[in-house]
């Protein structure tokens, strides 16, 4: 009888894909997008330069350990960079805030005075 555990963590999926990309000699930089339940968000993981699988695993574990109890998964070291994907609503809010800042800086208050 054969028994296999088919449950995988996001880290397992990431390690398998990076190993496959190394074997396929994929061009760098490589960027992955994966959902991480801990933050209930999609995160981007960028690897700018080719590194061996052991170094990659250590970098991912360093990220997971350092951001474990934080709300923001943003992380960077010499091997990987991690940041959350912004939702459509977050992008809209940022654009609205940016537009209101530009309007306030230009001095235009949105009203016209007629004499």
Question: Mind explaining what this structure looks like?
Answer:
The structure is a single chain. By secondary structure, this protein is α+β, with helices and mostly antiparallel strands. It has a domain at 10-88. The chain contains 3 helices and 4 strands. The protein has helices at 10-23, 53-66, 88-106, and strands at 30-36, 41-47, 75-76, 81-84. The protein has a 4-stranded antiparallel β-sheet with strand order 1-2-4-3, with no helix packed on it. Helix 1 packs antiparallel against helix 2. The longest helix has 19 residues, at 88-106. It starts with 9 loop residues before the first helix and ends in a 9-residue tail after the last helix. The mean pLDDT is 87.
Jot down its keywords.
single chain, 4-stranded antiparallel beta sheet, 115 residues, alpha+beta, 3 helices
List the helices and strands and how they pair.
Blueprint: H1 10-23, E1 30-36, E2 41-47, H2 53-66, E3 75-76, E4 81-84, H3 88-106
Antiparallel strand pairs: 1-2, 2-4, 3-4
Terminal CA distance reads 91 Å
Give the helix tally.
3
Supply Rg. 21 Å
β-sheet strand percentage: 15-25%
User: What's the quaternary structure here?
Assistant: single chain
Helix content: 40-55%
What class would the helix/strand composition place it in?
Answer: alpha+beta
Q: Can you give the mean pLDDT? A: 87
Shape: elongated
Strands side by side in the biggest sheet: 1-2-4-3
What are the secondary-structure elements, in order, as H or E?
HEEHEEH
Largest sheet: 4 strands, antiparallel
Q: Compute the number of strand runs.
A: 4
């Amino acid at each position: 009888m054969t028994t296999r555990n088919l449950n995988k963590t996001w880290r397992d999926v990431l390690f398998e894909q990076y190993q496959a990309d190394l074997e396929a000699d994929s061009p760098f930089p490589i960027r992955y997008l994966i959902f991480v339940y801990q933050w209930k968000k999609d995160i981007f993981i960028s690897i700018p330069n080719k590194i061996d699988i052991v170094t990659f695993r250590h970098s991912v574990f360093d990220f997971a350990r350092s951001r474990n109890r934080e709300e923001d998964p943003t992380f960077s070291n010499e091997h990987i960079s991690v940041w959350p994907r912004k939702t459509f609503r977050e992008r809209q809010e940022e654009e609205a805030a940016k537009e209101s800042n530009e309007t306030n800086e230009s001095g235009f208050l949105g009203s016209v005075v007629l004499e």
